[in-house]
Design brief:
Shape: flat
Helix content: 40-55%
Largest sheet: 6 strands, antiparallel
Number of strands: 17
């Protein structure tokens, strides 16, 4: 066994190129025919843990482990099924030959073996075997503890994402175990699995909502009840028969504790706001809750009744649910002003201002600037889109595809604070420069950013919108609009500088001088990469999407990414660099793993898709190497993703 371990380490440290045979692999394979069971197992384990192991190399080890599955010794059965469970994550087809043997282990007296067998079958099973597996597990679940049940539930959830067309049988299984006895963590895992299926398989929504309604009738966990009631309030009004959920929700108002009753009132109100046919019925039910013994429930009922009574017929969204649009500072100020009055009239939430947006100071529109605005509130894509569309020069650019994270263009604690946000459109890109003047004795006028396109030849400058005035402590914006060829993701470097007119302020009077002088302030270079054009999106069935894309667009290459603290750290770094989303839970690396495969997906402007399969390997010196294989809508996009890694 010690020799096997040493040989495995030598193989792991050696550099093997494509098509080249691994050194000492024949020795490991010969150990599979050894007389000692421990030697055989260690050899099989060493083969399975090889970096970038192929299915051909796995075959002899899996054949031996399959024989162990039928052993009379529980230790061998457990060891074999545990290793096969790990292999099934990356090579489910290689393990599928063992499915018949593993099905017999479902009834094994050792519940740990049975649980591993079930979860392995769920990873390797095909669409035709799902119904049979669900029936076998129904009787099995009552015999294991909650910690094993959670593992099974998670495996069922992943299987449903893999075969969404079989959601009915898996949803039925989840709903049946949801009604059985179990602790909070177990029930929470089931509810989260159902919610995950609803998010990815839209046709399962009504079935899932019905099962969840039945569950909350006897749910003893406040957290889960409120979570489900919130989901009912959001999704119920959009179903084909929203009225059938009203009874379940109102039962919670009558029978539950104050926290659940308050959540039920909010859920009911959503039905009244979004379904005009149910408005009167909801109003009647809310009136009954005005006499509840809990003040939170009474207050919610009163607020929602007020909104229902004042709601205009064409309005589809209640003002109280405008959470992301309401200015919190404005709400606080309005409440303070209301408390300072005799309060003879009820507080009107309609008087609360919308979220403040940083002012766009345009020479053509105004000669003055407004006061400081909270830039941290201008973060949602909808806010950006609304602000940009209100500027005439940007009104015809089409929908905003992506807004990148702000990047600093100056060092901290300098004269001016400048950040740049890149807004990506179909064939245009807008640079939004947020500027703050930190010099109290100066005011800046006619502020703009000059951009040199010498190293970004695919871009053409369309227009610049300067800021008229930038006093001390005020945030203002200047914009630069560029065009680029549609369907491309051009990258390059832009040299930028801040141009403005400086006027000094008399410290004794506070007045600014009439005459000023032109000045220029150098900024950090602005880099554009393909990552700026890609939006990270997850998909539920990576393999099917991979097969759909043209194999001619596939490009593979190997890269060294240096020393890392762990394989998990390397995975996170590569995912962040590529700007893609990890799919099917592959962002998590198993403990002590020496290799890993991460599946990534993203969409570029115009809906062009890109998929990447990244094979990671780490040696004993913590040096990490990766093999990046990309398929995309076209070969140029595949090359662009490789360029991100090569230059990163």
């Amino acid at each position: 066994c010690l020799i096997v371990g040493c040989v495995a380490q030598v193989i792991a440290d050696s550099q093997v190129y494509a098509g080249q045979e691994r050194p000492f692999y024949d020795f490991l394979e010969s150990c599979l025919r050894h007389k000692g069971e421990m030697v055989i197992f260690e050899a099989a384990k060493a083969i399975i843990e090889l970096n970038n192991v192929t299915e051909a190399e796995l075959a002899p080890a899996i054949t031996i482990l399959q024989l162990f599955l039928s052993s009379s010794k529980p230790v061998l059965r457990f060891a074999a099924v545990r290793i096969l469970n790990r292999v099934a994550i990356e090579h489910p087809m290689a393990v599928s030959n063992c499915n018949i043997d593993m099905e017999t282990l479902i009834s094994d007296q050792n519940r740990s073996i049975a649980t591993l067998a079930i979860t392995t079958l769920l990873k390797t099973g095909n669409e035709s075997s799902i119904d049979r597996l669900m029936k076998q597990m129904s009787s099995f679940m009552s015999e294991i503890g909650d910690e094993f049940k959670i593992v099974v539930v998670d495996a069922v959830h992943k299987l449903c994402l893999k075969f969404p067309s079989k959601f009915r049988s898996m949803m039925s299984f989840l709903s049946s175990i949801l009604r059985e006895e179990g602790g909070f963590e177990y029930k929470k895992a089931i509810v989260n699995a159902i919610l995950g299926i609803v998010r990815t398989v839209t046709e399962s929504k009504e079935t899932a909502l019905t099962h969840l309604c039945e569950f909350i009738e006897d749910c003893e966990f406040t957290y889960l009840s409120t979570q489900i009631l919130h989901l009912l309030g959001e999704e119920g009004p959009r179903t084909s028969h929203p009225a059938k959920y009203i009874r379940y929700i109102y039962n919670r108002v009558i029978l539950e504790n104050a926290t659940v009753r308050a959540a039920a009132v909010s859920s009911l109100a959503n039905f009244g706001m979004k379904v005009p046919a149910l408005k009167e019925r909801v109003r009647t039910l809310l009136k009954r809750t005005l006499f509840d013994n809990d003040d939170e429930v009474r207050d919610r009922a009163a607020v929602y009744l007020k909104l229902l009574n004042k709601q205009e017929e064409e309005s589809k969204t209640p003002q109280v649910l405008r959470g992301k649009n309401i200015s919190l500072s404005g709400l606080e100020q309005s409440l303070r002003e209301y408390l300072a009055t005799p309060m003879m009239e009820t507080f009107d939430i309609a008087t609360v201002p919308e979220k403040e947006l940083a002012p766009v100071v345009n020479m053509a529109k105004s000669k003055d600037t407004s006061g400081p605005a909270a830039l941290d509130e201008l973060t949602l894509k909808s806010d950006f889109e609304e602000t940009l569309s209100s500027i005439p020069e940007f009104a015809d650019l089409g929908p905003l595809y992506k807004s990148c994270e702000p990047m600093d263009l100056v060092e901290k604690e300098t004269e001016y604070t400048i950040t740049c946000i890149k807004h990506i459109f179909g064939s245009h890109i807008v640079f939004q420069f947020n500027m703050t003047n930190t010099i109290e004795e100066q005011v800046l006028e006619d502020v703009s950013v000059q951009v040199d396109l010498a190293e970004a030849e695919d871009y053409q400058e369309v227009c610049t919108i300067p800021a008229t005035k930038l006093p001390y402590g005020v945030v203002a914006q200047t914009y630069v609009l560029f065009s680029y060829p549609e369907g491309t993701m051009p990258f390059g470097r832009m040299v930028a500088s801040l141009n403005f007119v400086v006027k000094e302020i008399d410290p004794s009077t506070g007045d600014e001088e009439e005459e000023g002088f032109e000045d220029e302030y150098p900024l950090e270079d602005i880099y554009l990469s393909p990552q700026d054009f890609i939006h990270a999106t997850k998909i539920s069935n990576f393999r099917n999407k991979w097969e759909e894309l043209d194999p001619e667009t596939e490009i593979a290459d190997e890269y060294g990414i240096g020393v890392r603290d762990s394989l998990q750290d390397a995975v996170e770094a590569v995912v962040e660099t590529l700007g893609l989303a990890a799919c099917e839970g592959t962002e998590a690396v198993p403990p002590n793993a020496r290799s890993h495969v991460c599946l990534l997906h993203g969409k570029a402007v115009g809906g062009m898709e890109a998929l990447a399969r990244v094979n990671f390997g780490i040696d004993r010196n913590m040096e990490v190497a990766i093999k990046l294989t990309v398929r995309a809508a076209n070969a140029d996009m595949s090359e662009a993703l490789h360029a991100i890694v090569a230059e990163g």
